[in-house]
Amino acid sequence: MARLLVVEDELNLAEGLRFNLQAEGHEISVEGDGDAALAAVRNGRFNAVLLDVMLPGKDGFEIASALRAEGNFIPILMLTARGRAEDIVQGFAAGADDYLPKPFDLSVLLARLNALLRRMSWPHPSPQPESHDDDLDQFSFAGRHIDFDALELHAPHSTEADARDRTIRLTLMEADLLRYLVRNRDRIVSRKELLEQVWHVREDTDTRAIDNFIVRLRRYIEEDPAAPRHLQTVRGVGYRFLPHPEQT
Questions:
Q1: For an engineered disulfide with 62, which of 2, 58, 148, 149 has Cβ 3.0 to 4.6 Å away?
Q2: CATH number among 1.10.4160.10, 1.20.272.10, 1.10.10.10, 2.120.10.30, domain 138-247
Q3: Strand-strand pairing, 138-141 and 98-101
Q4: CATH architecture of 3-121
Q5: Cα–Cα distance measured from residue 15 to residue 18, given in angstroms and rounded to the nearest whole number
Q6: Structural contact between residues 151 and 175, judged by C-beta atoms closer than 8 angstroms
Q7: Collapsing DSSP states into helix, strand and coil, what is residue 238?
Q8: How far apart are CA 75 and CA 52, in angstroms?
Q9: Which pLDDT tens digit goes with each residue over 126-151?
């Protein structure tokens, strides 16, 4: 059983979700206002949030962005009638872990929700010094270690005064994007390929959301994000991840 927050201003849909999720054994709270929902997540202990985009007060994008900026990595499943490719990408860029356009089938919603809950309940093993390239559960490079299953990146602090590694929590989409770049390391990956293979979007879409993700990843892995060595831009094409740039 999980404790879930449903954020939906359409009363009939909110109550329908409450009924069906309670039938699955979950404990459900409902909020219909963006500001109240953000306060509820900050003050409560929920296992996941089902978050509509169009809300009174703060919208779903703003709520997701605010939580991620605060370091809150609660699983977020966005539910919205805005199903255009650029809206899906914007949802992931805001920090959503999954995105389900309305109208949706209940069985699909339950499958997506259960996948999120399973993923976030996996144990978080301690970082290992070696990379595991076969399944890419983990990857190490340049003193950094990515644990994709635990959604964690371990990296040195930017100052020599603190010898301890810092642990950075990743969203599912950040982890999936970084995993794809690592899997395709040393080769140029186009923005179109990233949209299709990571976001599963095959329409003409504004690629600025990808650029925003890259900026965030650079803050995590680069000593100087303004002069990246590992995650490089190939102008007019896309990006290239170089775990060992000194060898190229």
A1: 58
A2: 1.10.10.10
A3: unpaired
A4: 3-Layer(aba) Sandwich (3.40)
A5: 5
A6: yes
A7: strand
A8: 14
A9: 444 444 444 578 999 999 999 988 88
